[in-house]
Amino acid sequence: MYWEKDIETIPREKLEALQLARLKESVAKASSSVFYGDLFRKIGLDPNDITTLEDVRKIPFTTKDDLRDHWPYGFLAVPKDDLVRMHSSSGTTGRATVIFHTLNDINEWTNIVARSMYMTGMRRSDVFQNIMTYGLFTGGLGFHYGAEKVGALIIPAGSGNSKRQIQLMQDFGTTAIHIIPSYALHLSSVFEEMGVDPKSDTQLAIAFLGAEPHSEKTREKIEQFYGLKAYNSYGLSEMDGPGVAFECPYQNGMHVWEDNFILEVVDPDTLEPVADGDGGELVMTTLLREGMPILRYRTKDLTRIIPGPCECGRTHRRIERIKGRTDDMLILKGVNIFPIQIEKKLMDIPGVGTNFLIVLEREGFNDLMIVKVEVQKEFFSGDLKQLEGLRRRIVEDLKSDILITPKVELVEPGTLPKSEGKAVRVIDNREE
Ligand code: AMP
Ligand code: ZN
After folding, report:
1. What 8-state DSSP symbol labels residue 308?
2. Which atom of ligand 1 is nearest to the CA of 89?
3. Which residues pair with 254 in a beta bridge?
4. Residue-level pLDDT at 45
């Protein structure tokens, strides 16, 4: 059941001692980069000043802007010849940040992805279809290498081409998939269109859901439709990519592989550590990275540490599913709203289809939220006007949660823009 029992179940004191030893090395390595070299000189930090794990707080935070300002090579801690691969973030705003890896970096990353997949029950007998974009995005190659290390047969399908995905699953007996949750919902309507029932007509047993926030309800929907177990997979390119945190069979939070990373949760406004179990922004430090160590990176992802041990016996702490990003938060009439709150409510309402879109407009001095919701195929008779009851229910349910009254528009199944990558949930037409 464990990929590496000793390290996965290592007692906390030993894990922390290992982290400290690795943190010292990581800080020493980082000091050879232009960025950290300058920073440490400026603040007078010597790698030898790190004598306890708490001393990580002596290091200032690193932000996406720091990565951008020192693009492309300002964070390199090794000569360029030692690098074997680059990846980049899939960010839509500003210049994508790039991350460089040595061969050891790739091997360590591959190992935590393999460890994560193995934890959910994937084995060499599995047929793994990777429905993720290959290329600069880490979801493709990251999972590919991990699955190869586990020894599964990989179908490197890439994203898109929905009918072909389903054909591949049927022809080659796919048992495990890696898929973006919004795409999994979309793909379910293509299954229906083709008259294929994944529960009886495929051998699917495991799905890895990653790359974007999704609610427990969406997981349940996917598990029920496909007849499989779906595991939440969290990662970001700055910390390798997938494999950073992953759900175990207990599906209660994601274990962060603390032998590879230091995990902190801070208040995004004061940047002070929050109390154990409280919500805040996830901050992470690489412990094994050679090519491009990154210390105290502000991920912008909001979560909390789930206190207490996990029943699976692993000692690496768990984080709760990501609630959203600090930069995803919508402020409307002074109310803070995360798109995932809307998703959560919508997925609970019978008759709601697989896709929705939030559009923000300004009317005079007022902000207006329009939620466009696809209707489920079986509910749709050809006339949206007959579904006024459903529309009202959506307005009421959303209002009870987000405290403002959105305008809800029902749309026909399959008519909202689909994305093969991360879903675009919000279009903000308000002017500055
Ligand atoms: P990238 O730019 O491709 O490195 O994307 C990393 C970002 O994707 C993270 O910082 C998160 O905001 C988001 N992300 C990745 N996996 C998950 C997940 N399982 N749940 C929620 N958000 C995720
Ligand atoms: Zn566990």
Report:
1. S
2. 2
3. 247, 319
4. 96
Residue range 386-409: mean pLDDT, rounded: 95
- What's the token pair of residue 3? 């990929």
Residue 92, pLDDT > 60, answer no
CA distances from 231 to 67, 171, 321 (A): 30, 24, 11
Residue nearest to atom 10 of ligand 1 (CA): 236
Contact 422, 186 (CB under 8 A): no
Structure tokens belonging to residue 184: 């999994």
Ligand 1 atom at shortest distance from the alpha carbon of 97: 2
Q: What is the pTM of this model?
A: 0.95
The domains of the chain, with CATH numbers, are: 1-326 (3.40.50.12780), 330-428 (3.30.300.30)
Confidence of residue 432 (pLDDT cuts 50, 70, 90): low
Average pLDDT of span 128-136? 96
| CB 232 less than 6 A from any atom of ligand 1 | yes
Q: Is 200 helix (H, G, I), strand (E, B) or coil?
A: helix
Q: List the beta bridge partners of residue 14.
A: none
Ligand in closest contact with the CA of 248? 2
Residue 366 has pLDDT above 90, yes or no: no
Helix (H) or strand (E) holding 340: helix 339-346
pLDDT > 80? residue 158:
yes
Q: From the CA of 195, how far away is ligand 1's center (Å)?
A: 33
Is 136 in contact with 88 (CB distance < 8 Å)?
Answer: yes
Q: How many Å apart are CA 11 and CA 432, to the nearest integer? A: 52
**Hey, is 415 helix, strand or coil?**
coil
C-alpha dist (Å) from residue 50 to 23, 30, 33, 111, 290? 8, 13, 18, 27, 18
Coil/strand/helix, residue 198: helix
User: Which residue matches tokens 């700055």?
Assistant: 238
